[in-house]
Design brief:
Length: about 100
């Protein structure tokens, strides 16, 4: 027979995996990800929900004659933090994705 015991075991495993997924999602949301531009001229901090929490800019970077440099450094720092967040998410959540499937 295709037995109810196999189905019960499968449901139990699914509930366990669902609990693990929720736990990892909560851990990601609570983690802070810091990105920086070269020489830490700009540092930014994001939470796992992709919300920026903080930005620090070294005063010597602020040059009224060259606002593009400041913009570039901010972009580098933000992208660095978001890459770290995405890599951590993939590492934590990838274990739950079927082989060959894209990540979370």
């Amino acid at each position: 027979m295709f037995g109810g015991q196999n189905m019960q075991q499968m449901m139990k495993q699914m509930k366990k995996m669902q609990s693990q997924v929720q736990s990892e999602q909560a851990a990601i949301a609570e983690t802070e990800y810091t990105g920086s531009a070269p020489s830490d001229m700009v540092t930014v901090k994001f939470n796992g929900d992709h919300e920026m929490l903080d930005m620090q800019i070294k005063p010597e970077l602020i040059d009224p004659e060259d606002p593009d440099e400041l913009s570039d450094m901010i972009l580098v720092a933000v992208n660095d933090a978001l890459k770290k967040l995405e890599a951590d998410t993939e590492k934590r959540m990838g274990q739950f994705a079927p082989k060959g499937m894209g990540g979370f």
